[in-house]
Amino acid sequence: MVSRPLKVVVLAAGKSTRMKSDTPKVLHKVAGAPVLKWVLEQARSLQPAEIIVVVGHEADAVRKAFASFPGTRFVTQEPQLGTGHAVMQARAALAGFEGDLCVLCGDVPLLKPETLVRFLADYRHSKAVASVLTARFPDPTGYGRIVRDAQGRLTQIVEQKDLVPELADIREVNTGTYLFDAAALWARLDRLTTKNAQGEYYLTDVIQLLCLDKQPVAATVCEDRQEVIGINNRRDLAMADAVARGWIMLDLMLNAGVTILDPASTYIEVGVRIGRDSTVYPCTAIHSGVVIGRRCEIGPFAHIRGGTKVGDNCKVGAFVETKNAVFGEGSKAGHLAYLGDVTMGKDVNIGAGSIVANYDGQKKHQTEIGDEAFIGCGTVLVAPVKVGRNAQTGANTVVPRGKDVPDDTIVVGIPARELKKKPKKQ
Q1: CA distance linking residue 55 with residue 75, whole number of Å
Q2: Whole-angstrom Cα distance, residue 310 to residue 278?
Q3: ∠ at Cα 287 (258, 41), nearest 5°?
Q4: Catalytic annotation, pick one of 57, 287, 303, 335
Q5: Is residue 335 among the annotated active site residues?
Q6: Are residues 72 and 168 located together in one domain of the fold?
Q7: What is the DSSP track for 235-260?
Q8: Which domain-ending residue is among 187, 206, 228?
Q9: Which run of H or E residues covers position 64?
Q10: Can you give the pTM of this predicted structure?
Q11: Which pLDDT tens digit goes with each residue over 67-106?
Q12: CATH number of the domain that 395 lies in?
């Protein structure tokens, strides 16, 4: 049997009122990536024909941030009159579509692809016209409650502000994630009203209308409630960030063979790759896009910024900061160094207190350091500059911009001057 076509609608129009921020909520970052990027990757895991993103607050900024995300189209919700109203705005973009619609919240970043795939499989197996992803919380305050009948069938979703006392103790909550038969959804959207505590069009009311119409509605429980953390304020953001980074480090330890000596004090963002038998010491920060090879030592107190690529058998030690730095195999910066926009060959040694001065106040410039070069303690390399193979700088040397150090040469002083030649290495 051929699967029905699927499209995804992402609700990302909300304001950042409780975030106390000028930045749209969906552009705040979790483990180094914008909240909405996490959600769009969730959507893509379902292999939909198209992703429709409903934007509103600071819509231009959101569109610009994700203009190149594949298979994505944007529609605008203005004003913002609730989740049902948001889906109404996607209706024109989905004209003529016959199939299933998945609705995702743009501020729920941690849903795992396998959870969504299971949700979709359960929905299609049930032959229902709608399904809700639910979770069970010890304290469900703030969430809409899942109301079931005596046979355990879902009958309605009641928002927190509309709760009556007899429903307040329900622990099963709505995660804001839905699947709908498109035709069944459109037929009920036209019947939504704003007769509720918030004066909005609730998408949750579609579920109740379907139940009243005796249409089958299913529900899948998400077993790990951490996956459905919604971002409403900075506390939620910090919580989601901590959970995401915990998962990232767990994956590195269990599946990549990386030793992380103290995960509680270590900060590693999404998209970091670290090779087998490398060790990350405490109080180290490694940012998105960094690639670290095998058998490396990183930290403690290292700051490894984007664009850094560390080869095998390297060391980036205590209080070393890197940015767009490439370490050839066996190269080492043991402690107290700044290495920005620099490419190092193999077996380079960076002495303590050394700086690659990559910024002239207006532009960033590149530095190249050849194989087996030795950069003495306290050296300043003023970019753009090249240090040749097997070259060496003495302690506290300043190499001016454009004053390249030849191969097999020792330079010392301020500014650097040639002291002598070294024997050439074979």
Answers
A1: 6
A2: 11
A3: 90
A4: 335
A5: yes
A6: yes
A7: HHHHHHHHHHHHHHHHHHHHHS--EE
A8: 228
A9: helix 59-65
A10: 0.93
A11: 999 999 999 999 999 999 999 999 999 999 999 999 999 9
A12: 2.160.10.10
